[in-house]
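Shall we go through a protein fold together, starting from nothing but its sequence? Label the sequence line and the structure token line clearly, so we can match residues to local backbone shapes. Would you write everything just below, so we can both look at the same thing?
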Amino acid sequence: MRILLCLAFFLVPAIATAFDPLQINKFADEVVSRHALDRDWVVETLGEAKLQQSILDAISRPAEKTRPWHEYRALFINDRRINDGAAFYREHRDTLEQVATECGIPAEIIVAILGIETHYGQRAGSYRVIDALSTLAFAYPPRAAFFRSELEQFLLLAREHDVDPVAVEGSYAGAMGAAQFISSSYRRYAVDSSGDGSIDLWSDWRDVIGSVANYLHTFGWRRHEPITEMVVIESALATPFIGEKLELDRSLGELRQAAIPVTAEGGDDQPAMLFELEDTDGPVYWVGYNNFYVITRYNRSRMYAMAVHDLGAEIASRVAAR
């Protein structure tokens, strides 16, 4: 075994990075074995990756974990992002409303996700995806397994969609395009809405809008159902119903029985969650329903889902007023 590892080391053609060559070769062997990829291409592609300390720094301080809700909200719900969102809505109204009719996803929710993710495509990320995924796969132990899987998916994506794996850029976590799909999501949920035979999440807005809608639809969005509502209650009443995990762990019946003033229509067995957000004047309490939970499948954060909800409402109001 020691001899084989030494031989594998010399098979790597001068990888000028701080990555461990043994890890690179082991990973290359695994993906080549699973997917019949060309090993020389895999090793050459990985050899172009550079370890970036800025990526490690960025993943250690995501906004959802370092800011209270009122500060996080202000990052996204402001006049510039609302105005730009309304302009984007008007520009792509036909596509948005067609998708809303077909999939049941409100147009303003799709626009809000694009607004939060990339400011409507204006800020899709400046890190090379190969650098981001390799850095996190081989130099970030807490989530190395996840990012190695995404790196594997990225190589498959490059083969399937004619993407240049050493040129394409994205976020510090390897998310790509205006919709910020990670590699596995791109392969699983992205769709060719334009019907031109390819999927382009960077510049084809029909593909972008259709892919976001398909993602939410696949995770169970329910047409015409509520997303969330604020409830005015004391913390002593709320605390027993707030779970640590991001899941629909309560029912409307439980909340009604506890005199929590929900207004959503639905049977007592309808799933829900109660959660707390820190506003400028203290904690506020919200009930999230199925569609709220679906938004959190895009980004596992209650604050993210609330920002999508609030930004979407402001954009819809601005469009209607115009």
About this structure: The first strand starts at residue 127 and ends at 128.
